[in-house]
Amino acid sequence: MPTETDRAGRLPIVQQFAAPIRRIPILPAVVLCGLVIGVLAILGILQRTVHPEWIAANLDAESSAGKWVGSGLLWAAAGVWFLVAATGASARPWVWIWWPILAWLAADEGNAFHERIERRLEVDWQILYAPLIVVAAISWWGVLRAHRRPRKVALLLILGAGAWAIPLVLELIQNWGGEPIEAALYDPMMITEEILEMIGATVFFIAGLMVLKGDAAHRTRC
After folding, report:
1. In which band, very low, low, confident or very high, does the pLDDT at 35 lie, cut at 50, 70 and 90?
2. Is residue 6 part of a domain?
3. How much is the pLDDT for 88?
4. What are the phi and psi torsion angles at 146 (to 5°)?
């Protein structure tokens, strides 16, 4: 049976890369992400109501500050969960499905893949992405079961999933609710969607960071 030292010896580069990530303080990371998301929310509201010329602040644009930040947060979440898997901080196989899902979402957010596919095929992207959503939900459930302790991690995983589930529902309402609903509620629902997605990505990142830090503390005690 391989020991922790054996596993670390097989993955020296990953362990070395994980070390500085483990030193990221959680509270300042949360505050920084919160401030950035808050600023983007304010600018996004102003862009839709007062300053339509602020193109970079348009949260609905396929290329904007909000999209770049959202993609970056998802890449950070994917990266930290990859380290959780590669360093052995999680013994369950679900994490090897979970982090690629986050990486795909990051690539999609930054490149607007689902919007482009939807336009080309003229099929709602929710239908096209249904299999991916099912796989994501199953892998999330597996990761949640593997990390029920500490409860903070489980709670963050649940909150992150909720932050991503609500935008899916809001987008369904926009797409299938008819023109009156879309005309009246599009802007507030769109802004809510984008902000919740960024919050969800941040929460997933913090959850993975806590798992990575917890594993390091366990190794130190042992």
Report:
1. very high
2. no
3. 81
4. -75, -25
